[in-house]
Amino acid sequence: MLNSFVFVLLFFIFVKFATLTCVRCPTGSVAHDEYQCVLICEAWYCDRLVDCLACGPGTIAGTDPQNCKTCDPGTYSNSNNTECLACSAGQETNINKTGCSDCEIGYYNPQPSQMCEKCNIGTYAPNPGSTNCLKCPMGSFQNMSGESFCYPCGVGKYNPSSNSWNPNDCLICPIKYYCPNDMTAQPIICPKNHYCDSDGLSTPKKCPVFRVSNEGESKCQFSIAFIAITASFCVIVIGIIILVVRLKIQNKKEKQKLLRPEKLPENETLDFSELRKVVPMTQPNQIVYSGL
Fold it and tell me: What's the structural domain count of the chain?
């Protein structure tokens, strides 16, 4: 009985293999073993060696049929997910990994197939899509990375260096100079007929009337014209004073001369006989009006 069953089983196996023929695998597939074909997927990957599934954004079909290859940073997958394409300088892979986006302000990318990086301290990137960072100009500084601007030193200060990151690089404008702008590179010498008498000035001070100064002065002096006018006025005033004094002295002398009798010459006596004819003699103790 057992021998009959084994014989029948062997017969059927013989018939199966005797009638089996090989069939060419269809296009896009290869033989996995003697009995099964496996799909060769382009832009797809094989799930359990049976079905082809699409690769996701930022990936492409690689040599491994069961896994997709991730595109490198700075690259993205094309619409068919068959190739990774490079982003241009000033760009990086977008968030969906399906294209490129410009670098944000404060960031830069100098060459293709790279990701954007922060600008270093002392530099800035004011526009999106920058391929390089700009140095902070003189009169400013930037002490943080990834910025789109530089801090101005402010009026009354200056900074002669570019690419500055230290706030202490901003110096106070010295005496005899002024710093008018908030981003002054060099202090400006105080102009003629002005004076700069303190540190940190943003505007020069104008000399008062009748005073002048040369460039780079901290105070004003009286002008030569003013000195000449003043001296002339003083001379005139002094001359007038001297003249008035002399006139007063002369007038006083003349009055004294009128009040004082003339001195008679020697050996000459005064004859009052004629005087009595004109002026009657008074009695003793009689008051006479002299007219003075």
Answer: 3
